[in-house]
Hints:
10 strands; about 35% helix; 6-stranded mixed β-sheet
Amino acid sequence: MTNSYESHPSGVSHEMYPFIKRLLSEGKRFNEVTREVAKKFSISGKSAGYKVWLVNRDLEGRPVGRDRGTHKVVGTSLKTILEESKSGAAIEVFSGKESNLYPHVIDALKKNIQGKNVHLEITATGGKFSKEMNKSLDNAAFYFVKSERQSPDIMGYVIEDESPFGFGISAHQAQNHIVVEVKNESISIADIYQTKRYGEVFDAKYAFLISTEPIAEEIRRFIAERPSVLQYQYSNGIREIVFGELDPKSDNLHFEDFG
């Protein structure tokens, strides 16, 4: 008996393969395809991303990320990925791993904090900070890291001139903490609260929530009705989370203002 289904890679069902293939042929971004697959087949985003990667590799006709000149493409059109791959360039697809984005976010943030003494490092390791970072933590933050084994994706600090009275009176250099959460999908309400918690735990003057996707309309409406969700307690007053949309190909950040 002849099988009416297309052949497909192991790990991708007969029903899922043509669905993913159609989305790829439409030139949709990897993140968009992953979300649609996760929603339609009720699977996790991580699992959906892996299956999309498998189908993409199958369509290319060879393994991804090998041969000559391997480079990464993050958050770009899969149609472009396929075309570049066929031309001879080997592609390493960003298959749902947020960790691949961390260096891009650090580079983008440093470009936006030019002229200042800034230190940023990847801290999504459950408390494994550099000696320099550990030294910058106060006792409460240090206890949190060691006991909870939780930390932002990226953390650091910036050295800034501050004056308690304004107008440069009694100015001194202050070491102000930075916390950063990174998402390779649309920002959720839970992501906002997670960033808010880290901002307060680490007494961060700057708390960033960075995504490769635009902020969804439902999140915008939620913030409009509950603007205090963006605020967190800082030792020198109330601060607000800063949202950014990352273009990983250019390491450019577009900041969103809800003020």
